[in-house]
Design goal:
Blueprint: E1 3-13, H1 26-35, E2 39-44, E3 49-56, H2 59-74, E4 80-84, H3 85-93, E5 107-112, E6 133-137, E7 140-144, H4 153-158, E8 169-173, H5 174-186
Antiparallel strand pairs: 1-3, 1-4, 2-3, 5-7, 5-8, 6-7
Protein name: DUF1697 domain-containing protein
Organism: Streptomyces formicae
Pfam family, one: DUF1697
Length: about 190
């Protein structure tokens, strides 16, 4: 484990505070992250987004440690993905869709715990869902859904568990993607 000066991260929790289930109050999450020794802790929305700094450089180790702490504190498991600020900005820079011309609800990013090969998504007939589209990036899947995620047939097809078996995947709309990149750029050192 390499320890150096604090580095900005975003924490993405999957499937919390939805329909009154698996409640993780953001004030408690902030307190828990602070107790774990992370600095500059802030949360964004109620859907499981936090930013913090840490001297730890291993994203997977951070995600595992936070996941264990959440399970111990709240009594249930939550899939966690941790990504560094520069990576989040890279996700924005590498977007294959014209993000500046779209509404935030039309563009989504699914963060993946590990890279996947394009062949894994071959069962999805992309042409059948046009004008909706998806593209793979570095540990992300970009989804263009002009009528929003709630009405997206492509999002429904991509949500099949067999496509991402063994991989943690959690989706954020473009507004949240941009805000997390901004917050990690602003996160003060611990």
């Amino acid at each position: 484990m390499t320890r150096t000066s604090p580095y900005p991260y975003a924490l993405l929790l999957r499937g919390i505070n939805v329909g009154g289930h698996r409640k993780v109050p953001m004030a408690e999450l902030r307190a828990l992250l602070t107790e774990l020794g992370h600095g500059g802790v802030r949360t964004y929305l109620q859907s499981g987004n936090a930013v913090f700094t840490s001297a730890e450089r291993d994203e997977d180790a951070l995600a595992s440690g936070i996941g264990r702490a959440i399970e111990q504190h709240f009594g249930f498991t939550v899939d966690c993905i941790v990504r560094g600020g520069p990576y989040l900005r890279g996700v924005m820079d590498d977007c294959p869709f014209p993000a500046a011309e779209l509404e935030g609800r039309q563009l989504h990013v699914t963060y993946l715990s590990e890279p996947i090969a394009p062949a894994r998504l071959a069962p999805v007939d992309a042409a059948a869902f046009l004008p909706e589209e998806f593209r793979l990036g570095e540990r992300v899947l970009y989804l263009y859904a002009p009528d929003g995620l709630g009405r997206s047939k492509l999002a429904e097809a991509l949500a099949r568990p067999s496509l991402f078996k063994g991989i943690v995947a959690t989706t954020r709309n473009w507004n949240t993607v941009a805000k997390l990149a901004e917050l990690t750029a602003e996160t003060p050192d611990a």
